[in-house]
Amino acid sequence: MRIRSHIRRLLIRSGLYYPFNLVRSVPDIVRWLRSGCVGPAPHSIKMMVVMSYVNRFPVDEFVETGTYDGDTLGYIARSGIRCTSIELSNELYAAARRRFQNDRNVRLVHGDSGEKLPELLNELGKPALFWLDGHYTSPQTAMGDISTPIVTELAGVLRHPVRSHVVLIDDARFFNGTNDYPKLDEVLRTVRESGGYSAEVSTDIIRIVPRPSTRTAAV
How far is Cα 100 from Cα 94, in angstroms, rounded to an integer? Predict the structure, then answer.
């Protein structure tokens, strides 16, 4: 494990980490494509999806809940956009601090995203892209009072006075009404009733974007 971690750090420092990971994930991508894109997309595909929304929409900041190993955060930070990531685990937060200590466009926040995200929203005055992926998945991750604070997180973004945010929620397959997840149709109904956003689901990601009229008014 130490050798693997050392190689990973060298690849990150050299800028070869993400190209290497993409090449390594090609067999998984091919299998997923051959299946007709059934099931969760490989992580490299999901990162490219997130980046495509950063490029498509006039967002001023990337806000992530659940830093985990920092791979998605590092991938998006390469674009130069200002990035904020919230992590509950002490160990994962410390590891992220070491990894991003020289990245001036990255801000790390330690704590429960259900509590910290509302604080960040109070600071935001421009559109942001939210990648909501803060949930308990294994002993490597931390768990707060509930398995996932997604209901609180999404409600805060939808109530925010800036009406042109973009929200991407990972692991749409988990939205079945168990383990503190709402049902998917409940989430989609909440988005529709918010008035300013539309939603769709693809590649295991719930994608919430401002309606065209809202987007135009915000520009």
Answer: 10
Residue 112 has φ and ψ, to the nearest 5°, of -80, 125
Q: Is 59 helix (H, G, I), strand (E, B) or coil?
A: coil
Cβ pair 94, 161 in contact under 8 A: no
Residue 39 — φ and ψ, nearest 5°? 85, 180
At 94, the pLDDT band (50, 70, 90 cuts) reads very high
* 3-class SS of residue 207: strand
Round to whole Å and give the CA distance between 26 and 38.
16
In the chain, domain spans:
1-38, 39-218
Whether 22 shows a pLDDT value over 60: the answer reads: yes
Q: Which two tokens stand for residue 94?
A: 């410390």
* Domain 39-218 listed as CATH 3.55.40.20: no
pTM of the model: 0.87
The residue written with tokens 């704590």 in the block is 111
| Phi and psi torsions of 63, nearest 5° | -120, 125
Comparing 79 with 37, which gets the higher pLDDT? 79
The crossing angle, in degrees rounded to 10, of helices 26-34 and 17-24 is 40
